[in-house]
Amino acid sequence: MSDKNDVLVKALTKDGMFRVYGLNATGIVSYVQKIHDTWSTSTAALGRTIAATLMLSASVLKGKESMTVRLNGQGPVGGMVIDADAKGHIKGYIQNPHVNLPLTQDGKIDVAKGVGKNGFLEVVKNQGTSEPYTSDVPLASGKIGDDFTFYLAKSEQIPSAVGVSVDIDGKNNVQSAGGYLIQVMPGASDEAIDKLEKTLKTAPSISSMLEKDPNPDHILDELFGKDQLDIVDHLPVEFVCNCSKERFAKDIAGIGKKDLQQLIDEDHGAQVVCNFCGKKYDFSEDELVEMLNNKDK
């Protein structure tokens, strides 16, 4: 699934002090909302995590590398699992899609309460080696942007600012989703960092910036000023699930003989549903019997 406006822009400030990323992922988050039937709090939590993961993967992965992000703050929405690669492909799901909490006092979706903060953010990087690299941090706030900022500082040792947003209307439709990731480069001056911190506090909301102009370049122009950036790349981003009947067949064939026999005797077949995209795969009784027979070979 792809949308022409779903783009991640990579850039460097002309003074070399900051590496920056801007993202519009409205189409992806809208699609995920539909396939998982998420309600507003769950949509915002999952959408923010997807946006943050897209920017994180673009900043730390290369080539054929990929990553899995797991985030669980023990809140009502439960855990989230997101898979992403260096090419802008992403997929994800949330444990409890039907969560719609009361709005905060200032009328915003209460993502922090939905996610909770008694938990962790874990990143597993698959870099082509025999063992993936895993690191995790406790959650900073459950608001997602703060949590990824904390992860980058602690696990990647990169001072950063992550801002993510999902705007949803009263009918549960995603109006905008995206964000920014700003990384401080070695040699950045204290003055430049102080100026950026002040800018981030007074800048328009991410949702208003995207709704004014869906091109994520606009976010970076608002934060740094026009003509202050050297654009490195515009990367189309999209929801991609690589599930298949063959993959799930291997999983079923890997269960114990007793459990496989039970599926044959009691259910006369099996249906597997992909957590990421919701696609269903049916296995007939004959297919299960063949798997069982192959175990004896």
From TrEMBL:
<dbReference type="GO" id="GO:0044183">
    <property type="term" value="F:protein folding chaperone"/>
</dbReference>
<keyword id="KW-0143">Chaperone</keyword>
<keyword id="KW-1015">Disulfide bond</keyword>
<comment type="similarity">
    <text>Belongs to the HSP33 family.</text>
</comment>
<keyword id="KW-0676">Redox-active center</keyword>
<protein>
    <recommendedName>
        <fullName>33 kDa chaperonin</fullName>
    </recommendedName>
</protein>
<dbReference type="GO" id="GO:0051082">
    <property type="term" value="F:unfolded protein binding"/>
</dbReference>
<comment type="function">
    <text>Redox regulated molecular chaperone. Protects both thermally unfolding and oxidatively damaged proteins from irreversible aggregation. Plays an important role in the bacterial defense system toward oxidative stress.</text>
</comment>
<dbReference type="InterPro" id="IPR016153">
    <property type="entry name" value="Heat_shock_Hsp33_N"/>
</dbReference>
<dbReference type="Pfam" id="PF01430">
    <property type="entry name" value="HSP33"/>
</dbReference>
<feature type="disulfide bond" description="Redox-active">
    <location>
        <begin position="274"/>
        <end position="277"/>
    </location>
</feature>
<dbReference type="GO" id="GO:0042026">
    <property type="term" value="P:protein refolding"/>
</dbReference>
<keyword id="KW-0346">Stress response</keyword>
<feature type="disulfide bond" description="Redox-active">
    <location>
        <begin position="241"/>
        <end position="243"/>
    </location>
</feature>
<dbReference type="InterPro" id="IPR000397">
    <property type="entry name" value="Heat_shock_Hsp33"/>
</dbReference>
<keyword id="KW-0963">Cytoplasm</keyword>
<dbReference type="GO" id="GO:0005737">
    <property type="term" value="C:cytoplasm"/>
</dbReference>
<keyword id="KW-0862">Zinc</keyword>
<dbReference type="InterPro" id="IPR016154">
    <property type="entry name" value="Heat_shock_Hsp33_C"/>
</dbReference>
